[in-house]
Amino acid sequence: MRPTSSSFPLPRLSTSTRRGRVAEFDVHRGLGLVTTDDGTPYPFHCTQLVDDSRVIDVGAAVEFAVIPGGIGRWEAASIVKLPA
């Protein structure tokens, strides 16, 4: 029998936010990677930046939520740049 999507439900997410730093960001593609303090990477697209700037500096401290992504991985969303 072939497994269905309901066979492997996604774990529930807490409503709390996480903190990390922007490890990579490609301005032309709009793709980036946020890494938490424990080293967990979360990819993101520039449309997830809350300030609508579509650009963020590598190394910037951020706060974000984690959501299920389109290709079966967790992604950063609602990304807010923290003051330096």
Care to describe what's here?
This protein has 84 residues and is mainly β. It has a single domain (14-81), classed as Nucleic acid-binding proteins (OB fold (Dihydrolipoamide Acetyltransferase, E2P), Beta Barrel), CATH 2.40.50. The chain has no helices and five strands. It has strands at 18-26, 31-36, 41-45, 61-68, 74-81. The protein has a five-stranded antiparallel sheet with strand order 3-2-1-4-5, with no helix packed on it. A hairpin with a 4-residue loop joins strand 1 (18-26) and strand 2 (31-36). The model has no long low-confidence stretch (mean pLDDT 87).
Quick structural gist:
The protein has 84 residues and is mostly beta strands. The chain contains no helices and 5 strands.
Strand content: 35-45%
CATH class: Mainly Beta
Strand order of the largest sheet: 3-2-1-4-5
Major sheet summary line? 5 strands, antiparallel
Number of helices: 0
Helix content: under 10%
**Count of DSSP E strands?**
5
CATH superfamily: Nucleic acid-binding proteins
Mean pLDDT over the residues: 87
Strand-pairing-aware structural class = mainly beta
Q: Please identify, by name, the CATH architecture.
A: Beta Barrel
Shape: globular
Secondary-structure element order, N to C: EEEEE
